[in-house]
Specification:
With 284 residues, the chain is mostly helical. The protein is built from 10 helices and 2 strands. The longest helix is centred in the last third of the chain and has 29 residues.
Length: 284
């Protein structure tokens, strides 16, 4: 099982790196869109619609919404699109507001299931998770050194996850959200945050950038990435399933691997936009 997990992880990393650095910013948007559609296929099952035709119909619905969002942003499939900054800001703010609401739902589980437990509402939750993720990654990739910024986002999520795992295993005593994910602890949460603070310091010193700027980008992203994991865990617990899918040998589904990114991406992108750092230049 471990060998299978490692091989799958390496293959995924290679595919992602090649797409990230090998595709122009606009075409990378199609790559991310394909991942979002696979996520939509899996989300339908989390929402209680396991039939193939139901999952395909939901993926088609998400594709239509992605198309509408792309037109709203001013993206028409170019390699180097010029996106509407105001439209990006609005969609990112909407995505971040959703994650603030999601925090309350996770904290209130299982009682909160009375508010979102209906199948249709769970489909709506998928829309609020998947579309802002796509918008955020499209925006971040458009920035100067955008490919490296996307890589930084992934690194922050990985550090929060890895730091949380090792700190939780060594020091974990106090449950973070026992009704949702019994294995997560406040000590692990703190460990992930500390790991990312160290990352921010190292990047500040290495790249000669403001430490405050790096903390503005890294800390909120690190904090909210855990929420993405918890939200998916809550939905899987409600649906009575272990993994979101089986497409990745040894890892489960796409959503199992990108749950932290779905929450972190809109926050990272909005922090990037608000800070004014790495001004947008298409096509890099």
């Amino acid at each position: 099982m471990l060998k299978q997990r490692v091989i799958t992880a390496l293959v995924l990393a290679i595919i992602f790196i090649v797409a990230l650095f090998g595709l122009p910013a606009g075409y990378f948007s199609f790559f991310v869109g394909a991942i979002v559609l696979i996520g939509a296929w899996e989300w339908a099952c989390l929402a209680g619609f396991p039939a193939r035709w139901q999952r395909a119909l939901y993926a088609l619905f998400i594709l239509v919404v992605l198309s509408l969002a792309s037109f709203y942003l001013g993206f028409e499939g170019e390699a180097s699109p010029n996106l509407d900054a105001d439209a990006i800001r609005e969609l990112l703010i909407a995505g971040c507001i959703w994650w603030a609401i999601a925090l309350l739902l996770v904290q209130g589980y299982p009682s909160s299931a009375l508010l979102w437990g209906h199948k249709i509402l769970r489909l709506l939750m998928g829309l609020l998770v998947l579309i802002p993720t796509w918008v955020a990654l499209v925006y971040v990739r458009q920035q100067e050194a955008g490919a490296w910024l996307v890589l930084l986002l992934m690194l922050i999520v990985a550090m929060a996850d890895s730091g949380g795992y090792f700190a939780g295993k060594r020091f974990g005593k106090h449950k973070l959200a026992s009704a949702v994910s019994p294995g997560k602890t406040w000590e692990g949460f703190a460990g992930g945050l500390i790991a990312n603070c160290v990352l921010a310091l190292m990047l500040s010193l290495t790249l000669e950038l403001s430490l405050l700027l790096m903390l503005v980008l890294v800390v909120p992203t690190s904090l909210v990435s855990v929420l993405g994991d918890l939200l998916e865990s809550m939905l899987k617990r409600q649906a009575g399933i272990k993994d979101s899918g089986t497409i990745l040998p040894g890892h489960g589904g796409i959503l199992d691997r990108v749950d932290g990114v779905t929450a972190a991406a809109p926050v990272f992108a909005l922090a990037l936009l608000a800070s004014g750092a790495f001004s947008a230049t298409a096509g890099l």
